[in-house]
Amino acid sequence: MDKKSIVQKVAQKIRGLRKIKNMSQVQLAEKARLHQTLIGKMERAEINPSITSLEKVAKALDISLSELLSFPEDKKEIDVDIKTLNKAIEILEHILEEAKELKKEESKK
Predict the structure, then answer these.
(1) Does 80 fall in a domain?
(2) So what's the pLDDT on residue 107?
(3) Residue 14: how many other CB atoms lie within 10 Å
(4) pLDDT digits (tens, 9 = 90+) for 65-94
(5) Alpha carbon of 68 to those of 6, 15, 38, 43, 98: distances in Å?
(6) Which 3 state secondary structure label does DSSP give 23?
(7) pLDDT tier, 39 (very low <50, low <70, confident <90, very high otherwise)
(8) Does any domain span residue 63?
């Protein structure tokens, strides 16, 4: 059984979702209209963030507050919604297309 505190679980979830969405802490802070040091402290579980701050972060990550604060009991469950996974796939497909274009350009030289 996982003995992490709720603050540690939220911190881990925020960082994980931010990285999946390919956002920096600065970008998340700007989108959430919070200071970037607050995002860093949240992700390191150095503070106990307010519900208002968590709500802003959730909205900036395109999830609900309840999704941000829900944690599966089974570690095997994936803690990311389909929308987030689809966004990650879009990003990877875009990177692949860019790599193909670069390869084409290099082969022309």
Answers:
(1) yes
(2) 84
(3) 23
(4) 999 998 876 445 555 567 778 888 899 999
(5) 11, 11, 17, 13, 32
(6) coil
(7) very high
(8) yes
Burial class (CB in 10 A: 0-12, 13-18, 19+), 59: middle
Asked if residue 1 is part of any domain, the answer here is: no
Summarize the confidence of residues 92-107 as an average pLDDT.
Answer: 90
Position 79 scores a pLDDT of 53
* Number of residues that make up the chain: 109
Domain that holds residue 59: 6-108
At position 84, the amino acid (one-letter code) is: T
Number of domains in the chain: 1
Q: 92: how many CB neighbours lie within 10 A of its CB?
A: 11
Q: How far apart are CA 87 and CA 81, in angstroms?
A: 10
Q: What is the CATH number of the domain that holds 66?
A: 1.10.260.40
For residue 74, the model assigns a pLDDT of 45
